[in-house]
Write a structure and sequence with these properties.
11 helices; hydrolase; disordered N terminus; Rossmann fold; globular; CobW-likC_sf; 5-stranded antiparallel beta sheet; Hypothetical Protein Yjia, Chain: A,domain 2
Length: 347
């Protein structure tokens, strides 16, 4: 984003982790684990509850950290997002703040929360979205997924559960002590079918290595540009029983015309934005010596320069689309249509 006029020296953007997951998955337990760990960071926690009587704040352990509670009877994904912006702007004025955790309601859709860091200029200048971390209750999630498989899309929580998994950058499969090893293996395979690009971590009582849930850098353009592309080359041949939710990976060898790419992304967002949970990729643009990193959430996307291409590296474009009812053939054709015209030397 461009700002005009005299600017004060900028402080590093504060990383924000969104913790989501269905009711009882262990989000507050993970928050407590983070707050009591010896990491030396100052952390602010934003608690959101779906209900009129606040409870979660009383469940968070007593620490020196700031706990900000939003108990206004609705989820952060609804009208309370304006409250979130106000809270973040207030936290930005606090000294020595190293990190923010946003614990959503179990019924929340984390996508609108993630979009806040794209659409609000003041928030985007002070904070950076680190990752969406979804907790899954290994002992109780299977019936929800089974109900979704059976077509109960509007009568139960299956859709919320599936959507929270699909949008995650990291999935923490919690309460693994409640299931047998074979059940856990089956569940992990099922989760990979819903979201092939998210890293999976298992835990009991939400006791995880903090490096597995903090500092992921899922929206870090520089880190993504220099990554080893594992997040772009995951095997997406494994599918969940319900084909509506899944990921599509596209790779093309042609360099792309930026204007054509921007037009196509705009058309795609207009037509399928509600179903497009995440979009990320490394783009090879014609006439550019560096790769471009593509990040998107629903109808919003960013395309920014990243690391230079090395001399021996093939310049190809790779993208992963995560969402509902995505058509691999359509997406591949759409991206391929953005190829720049080949320039042939005159005889």
């Amino acid at each position: 984003m461009t700002h005009h006029g005299r600017e004060a020296p900028k402080s590093p953007a504060i990383p924000v982790t969104v913790l989501t997951g269905f009711l009882g998955a262990g989000k507050t337990t993970l928050v407590n684990h983070i707050l009591t760990a010896r990491h030396g960071q100052r952390v602010a926690v934003v608690e959101n509850e779906f209900g009129d009587i606040p409870v979660d704040n009383d469940l968070v352990v007593e620490t020196d950290e700031e706990i900000v509670e939003m108990a206004n009877g609705c989820c952060l994904c609804c009208t309370a997002r304006t409250d979130l912006i106000d809270i973040l702007n207030r936290l930005a004025r606090r000294e020595h703040l190293d990190r923010v955790l946003i614990e959503t309601s179990g019924m929340a859709d984390p996508n609108p929360i993630a979009q806040t860091f794209f659409v609000d200029e003041e928030v985007a200048s002070r904070f950076r979205l680190d990752a969406v971390v979804t907790l899954v209750d290994a002992g109780h999630v299977t019936p929800h997924l089974d109900a979704w498989d059976a077509g109960e899309h509007h009568t139960g929580p299956g859709r919320q559960v599936a959507d929270q998994i699909a949008v995650a950058d990291r999935v923490v499969v919690n309460k693994t002590d409640l299931v047998e090893a074979a059940e856990l293996d089956t569940l992990l395979a099922r989760l990979r079918g819903i979201n092939a690009t998210a890293g999976l971590v298992t835990s009991c009582h939400a006791e995880v290595d903090l490096d597995a849930v903090l500092g992921i850098g899922a929206f870090d353009l520089d880190r993504s540009a220099q990554a080893d592309h594992r997040w772009l080359t995951e095997d997406d041949s494994r599918h969940w029983h319900d084909p509506e939710i899944g990921s599509v990976s596209v790779e093309i060898s042609e360099q792309l015309d930026r204007a054509a790419l921007e037009r196509w992304l705009g058309d795609l967002a207009a037509a399928r934005g509600a179903d497009l949970y995440r979009l990320k990729g490394i783009m090879a643009l014609a006439g550019q010596d560096c790769r471009y990193v593509l990040q998107g959430v629903h109808r919003l996307h960013e395309l920014r320069p990243g690391a230079p291409w090395s001399a021996a590296e093939p310049r190809r474009s790779r993208a992963v689309f995560i969402g509902r009812g995505l058509d691999a053939t359509e997406l591949t054709a759409g991206l391929r249509a953005c190829a720049a015209p080949r320039v042939t030397a005159e005889a």
